[in-house]
Amino acid sequence: MRRVPASASRWRSLPRAGLFVSLLLACGAALAGAPVKDPNVFELDGNAHDQAPAGDDWELIAPDGTGGNALRGVFITDSVTGDDKIFHGGGSKDVRDISQWGATTGEPPDKNDIEHAYAAAYNVGGDLVIYFGLDRFSTDGDSAMGFWFFKNNIGTTATGFSGVHAVGDILVTSDNVTGGTVSVINVFKWVGGQNPLQLLASSTTGGGSTDGAGVFCLTNTYACAIRNATAQPVPASWGGYTFKGAGAVNDFPPFAFYEGGVNISALLGGSETPCFSSFMAMTRTSASETAQLKDFALGAFPLCGISVGKACVVDADSPKINSDGESIHTKFNIPITNTGVGTVYDLSIEEDTALPGSFATSCHVSSPIVSGNMSTDGAVAVLASLGAGATSNIIVECDSKANPLVNSVTARAKSTQAQANRDLSASHTTGSGETCAVQPDPAIIVTKECAPSTGAPTGVKLKVGGGFEVCVNISVKNDSVESLKSVSITDNHIGALLTGGTLTPGQTVTYNNQCYTATNADGNETNPAEAAFSDEVNVSGVGAISGEPVGDPALPEATATCKLCPCSGPSCAP
Ligand SMILES: [Ca+2]
Ligand SMILES: [Ca+2]
Ligand SMILES: [Ca+2]
Ligand SMILES: [Ca+2]
Fold first, then answer.
1. What is the structure's pLDDT at 39?
2. In the predicted structure, residue 12 carries a pLDDT above the cut 70
3. What is the mean pLDDT of the chain?
4. Contacts of 237 (CB under 8 A, 6+ apart)
5. Are residues 368 and 462 in the same domain?
6. Domain count of the chain?
7. In the chain, how many H helices and how many E strands?
8. Ligand 1 centre distance from Cα of residue 326 (Å)
9. What residues have their beta carbon closer than 5 A to ion ligand 3?
10. Is there a single domain that holds both residue 326 and residue 365?
11. How far apart are the C-alpha atoms of 133 and 182, rounded to whole Å?
12. Contact 244, 110 (CB under 8 A)
């Protein structure tokens, strides 16, 4: 499976630019596609060196396809010895499907022998513009070339190729005439059927011209190419270049190096920009689409990607402690962005709920509403499609004892509608600034009063044989939004009323008519009107979510003072 580690930072939209274009827009004029010849995007200049213009050159793309401002690049080193993979058999023609092409190991004609091939894709004001090129082993004759951009993944087998054409594959054919300028460019779209190649643009039918610097462009400016008329240095990032009869050399001899570009979006005229997967450079007997194919160099060139984020949403419902007082409801916004240049399809997300510890976690998608269940199905479909550069926000709600909930989400998508499986994926784990925790304060209310209901008007009775029976009512309420664990309630005269208990949010436990025997009053024993009996209840516990002890630092407590005699008269005034 091909996985595109999508990251938004790789996506750069280059300015199409200039004041003139801005003025055109301001005047309401129709905006044409981006011209391929734009040194602020890529240097189509007949060499591979990155020079003063702001645009890239192949030096930056070699040796691994990365570098520069390219959305994606590929750099392929092809054999120039007898173990070269080359086309084989009469079926190897552009008008045949890939399954009919044959391949073998051998040696193509020297002038057709590809040594390196390369491609790089750019987003130029919303247009997909792809630059491509190759260098060859010898210049002892003209060489025609083709450059395929395949939507499906194409690979090689022992005798041929794996993968088939998809409608929308693009073929660019051109020539590399020794001693002359580039004068032929054709751009085709694979449409299948009896005449599988639809001509999108051609120098033969639409004309073209060469500028003073030697760059040949179609009249519509959407395809251009140039080869080196003079010796040009081989960049160090090439990893070496060998020329026939001369061995390793530091310069590409004249006509050994070719580079071109094509504005795919403009040539497709508003129809959907395809999402390519593979790139192939090939040499051939002529630029004609029916020409016999010679050498090829094939590589992955994935132009689709997605990125995903995940951040907690703070509102009245999130983060919020559930009624069980032990788990937390958290809402997350999950933005999925299409970082590629073509529409992606059948997007899904998966939440990682297998967290360490006892954090049983369940999540569900609340928006957009979908069929499918995250806890039983894993991946849940969330979007039918997502356009290039577009972002869609998915809302997921989770319940977990983790505080805060830190986990990852994985988004997947299909790079083409016909794709059997979701071949694109991206993951994101909530970062420190993206989580939200609840911070409950464990709180308890303890009340204690004398219990006159026991028969005595004050809750104090003289006992037969001496002493006093003092009765009190005690209640303890969990006054917080989290459960309290390890709750102990102890009265200094009555003893333990509860040990290791649990109080859910708002729960009250009541102990009525709890009595103890006292031999002496607190004081004033000689004045029955003033004699009173005091005792104290203490409560301890720990917040289930906060982990904080209740009443820290002072333990919750309540004292009841019960008088021996009912009060009456002015002396009762407080
Ligand atoms: Ca160049
Ligand atoms: Ca440059
Ligand atoms: Ca080859
Ligand atoms: Ca080769």
1. 97
2. no
3. 87
4. 59, 60, 62, 63
5. no
6. 3
7. 5, 40
8. 64
9. 78, 84-85, 295
10. yes
11. 13
12. yes
Same domain, 41 and 154: yes
CA of 295 to the centre of ligand 4 (A): 6
Q: What is the CATH number of the domain that holds 370?
A: 2.60.40.10
**What is the arithmetic mean of pLDDT over 340-345?**
82
The DSSP letter of residue 315 is B
For residues 207 and 338, membership in a common domain is answered with no
Tell me: do 263 and 324 sit in the same domain: no
**What are the tens digits of pLDDT across the range 18-28?**
333 333 333 33
* Stretch 293-309: mean pLDDT: 93
| Residue 311, domain extent | 306-429
Average pLDDT value for residue range 30-50: 91
Q: Distance from the CA of 55 to the center of ligand 2, in angstroms?
A: 4
Partners of 252 in the β-ladder: 232
Both 512 and 533 in a single domain? yes
CB neighbour class for 108 (10 Å; exposed up to 12, middle 13-18, buried from 19):
buried
| Beta strands 197-202 and 484-491, pairing class | unpaired
Based on the fold, state whether residues 219 and 278 are members of the same structural domain: yes
pLDDT confidence bin for 453, thresholds 50/70/90 = confident
Residue 226: inside a domain:
yes
What is the model's pLDDT at position 352? 87
HEC profile of 361-411: EEEEEEECCCCCCHHHHCCEEEEEEECCCCEEEEEEEEEECCCCCCCEEEE
14 pLDDT exceeds 80?
Answer: no
Say if 10 falls within a structural domain.
no
232 belongs to a structural domain: yes
Ligand whose nearest atom lies closest to the CA of 48: 1
Single residue among 300, 335, 362 that ends a domain in this structure = 300
Higher pLDDT, 38 or 440: 38
148-205 pLDDT, tens digit per residue, is 999 888 999 989 999 999 889 999 999 888 788 888 999 999 999 999 999 999 999 9
How far is C-alpha 281 from the chain's CA centre?
31
Ligand that comes closest to the CA of residue 43: 1
Mean pLDDT along residues 457-486: 88
285-294, 312-321, 473-482, 510-519: which range is least confident on average? Answer: 285-294
Are 392 and 380 within 8 A, CB to CB?
Answer: no
Evaluate whether residue 25 is within a structural domain: no
46 with 151, same domain? yes
CB-CB contact of 148 with 197 (8 Å):
no
Ligand 4 centroid distance, CA of 296 (Å): 7
Residue 407's closest CA among 434, 375, 379? Answer: 434
Q: What is the pLDDT of residue 156?
A: 94
Distance (Å) from CA 551 to ligand 3 centroid? 77
DSSP β-bridge partners for residue 516: 470
Which token pair is 279?
Answer: 């790139």
Final residue belonging to a domain, choices 300, 335, 370: 300
